[in-house]
Amino acid sequence: MSAFVRREGILHAEGVSLAEIAERFGTPCWVYSRHALEEALDEFQSELVGIEALVCYAVKANSNLAVLDVLARRGAGFDIVSGGELRRVLAAGADPRRIVFSGVGKSAGEMELALRVGILCFNVESAAELDRLDAVACEVGKVASISLRVNPDVDARTHPYVSTGLKENKFGVAYEDALPLYRRASSLSNLRVSGIDCHIGSQLLESAPFVEALDKVLLLVDRLAAEGIALEHIDLGGGLGIRYRDEAPPTVRDYLRPILARLRGRRLHVLLEPGRRLVGNAGVLLTRVEYLKPGDVKNFAIVDAAMNDLARPALYGSWHDIVPVVRRQGPVRPWEIVGPVCESGDFLGRGRDLALAAGDLLAIMSAGAYSMSMSSNYNSRPRAAELMVDGNQAHLVRRRETVEELYALENRLP
Fold it and tell me: Catalytic: 121?
């Protein structure tokens, strides 16, 4: 059941009116549903009962401490791609032994921190990274558990900016290079080969690419076993999509069924790295109409949120449903929903048929993933507040920035 429903004509997050939230906390602001987060994680975990598995939430999707805390309390692990994300999940109370470290550009300092706190595994993405990790582990007197992120050259059939499993992408080790690199890794005294990793992209809407990638990875697993390199886990990455408009992504059950069938009988611990699927539909961005600007060619509704808050429409041409918090009676027109940022690409939605007036509240739906985590201070705009709704309570989980904070680290010349 959706966490965002209408009651007496007003859109609510669980038991709290979004109009009330806007009145109390101002706009723009993000609103997340604790129930939706827990329900999304439970959908994965219920399908994995009886299987040695760990759901590692992809922190890049939404790194708010309250979001991380909710998921950690439900038993999630975490997939991180930076030292900053590592510090965030530790601050949220995560167990370091449930953290995997992905990403193509890990620094020596980030590696050292991860080794000292004792993370579960490094997903290594190049031969050069393998050498650096071995050297850093030697310096700190630790043995690093590693898997190689193997690029299976599988077309994920998604937006090219979020496709990560083709030869032309920067991610992972080329499939044909993986076996010799595993041999090399197994010979290094400061590394322990523990698994294999594969992640082919984001917002995938069918199961076939996942299965195709898995079949190729399992061939490599068997070749490694034949050479005496036995793996403990297989990390299948994330990427399962959500509904933004009219998409029909697989259920978690339908996504996992063919994958788990292929893993049956193998003594491999299973890791998954969902991000968007856990948080995407658990959040909305609230914004208020500042001005209406009708025109001969287009009608513009200028709102107080902008591309610096939600970059996905400008960056990917992405669709987010935009609905009034309180429906208005009156003539419906097609509106360009745009922000105040000084760019023609500053739009949140195009050609939306709505009855609008200045002051109306709009909810930009499915904004829980890659929204706040990708936001910026362009045009010296403070980043918006974040709220977490838990039943009938709305909790401020990140206050709105002030303009003074934006330049607090800067100095004028003497």
Answer: no
